[in-house]
Amino acid sequence: NSRTMSLLSQLEKINLDSVLGESDNARYVTSKILHLVQSQEKTRKEMTSKGSTGIEVILATLEVKSFHLCGYGCIVSFAFYHWAFYYEICCGGRRASVLVTKGGTQILLQLLLTASKDSPPNEELMVLLHTLLAKIGPKDKKIGMKARINGVLNISLNLVKQNLQNHRLILPCLQVLRVYSTNSVNAVSLGKNGVVELMFKIIGPFSKKNTSLMKVALDTLAALLKSKTNARRAVDRGYVQVLLTIYVDWHRHDSRHRYMLIRKGVLQCIKSVTNIKLGRKAFTDANGMKILYNTSQECLAVRTLDPLVNTSSLIMRKCFPKNRLPLPTIKSTFHFQLPVIPASGPVAQLYSLPPDVDDVVDESDDNDDAETESEIETENDDDKDQHFKNDDIETDINKLKPRQELGRPIEELKMYEQFFPELSENFQEWDLVSKEPKPFVPDANLSGPIVVPTASEE
């Protein structure tokens, strides 16, 4: 019976009418709803209350193709609704989940596809559509597949390519690309269209302007580099050295530690690219071990920079050369010298290697030359180290058990038997009264005579 319900009822009737002339009425009703949403808290609660059909009516209006002209007004009211409940979305996401269950993701993707066909596309509409998709995207686990099926995967990428200087537009586009990239198939497809090269144009060179854009671009790049195909592409183009240079620049200029999240984003990109063997080799060749070690030493005094130290430690542990024991070089803290080194054979070859040679062959990803759509990549590996197969571990317990040898012969040790009678094998039970050994009484189940004790013994 309220004004809002009356307007929603009118909009619902307009949606049922296929007359093109009704688009002006739809625009008028939508603008009224927008005004009420902006001015009254009661209206916002009324549209999102349980049992209300306000969201369904707005989504239905967006879905009707004949009312494309009034779509902008609906999107504005929809966007304001999201901003008004930004805190609730961040805390619980209940309202964003409602939009997903109502089919809001599919409708927004279809509207994005329709709006992209305009030449040039409406900038305001693109900003609002990408803002909404970036907010409800994390609540929809299948948004990557839906975007690929609807053919809108490259729309956001093309907008970024054509508007590199328009930070207001490319920021929500990058947020949507970050959501798309959580799907491994989408990451490979975007990588083939040049998204990796595009990200490096945005994150470099060093600048403290538009740090929010820099942070989103780094998060997007880290998600893309989890794909092994994209990681190889980054290594082939020499981007590992670029990432290390960017990290050193931010480390030197961020003296007050205000941009710790950006520095961590660069480390996450390095961590993703070093998941493959080529990335680890490129990292070592670029003197990455020394760079991360020196920067980590400077960050130890500040507790807020512990995430940087932890991530750097994971990267260095992952990329440090592996060697078999015993180590005859300075690489090892302890020196294990073999009693006898054969003149020829594999052991002699290991000892003859120069100090800077990694004698453990890394075959972690030799068989992963191509990625398929069935590949599933983990999404919570930011805080887990990469595990590599180590065939050099001995599993035979008999070989691992050390041999114990006496320092003196047995004959010399017999002179101490009288001092340690409990160590001898001749154990007898003594009678405390007679001070003599008790007669042996075998078990009843055993064969042989049974000795019965006398009355005095009892």
Automatic annotation (TrEMBL):
The keyword Protease applies. Residues 384-406 have a biased composition (Basic and acidic residues). Residues 356-383 have a biased composition (Acidic residues). Keywords: Carboxypeptidase, Hydrolase, Protease. GO terms for molecular function: carboxypeptidase activity. It comes from the Eukaryota. Residues 354-406, 438-458 are annotated as: Disordered. The keyword Protease applies. This is CBPC1 carboxypeptidase.
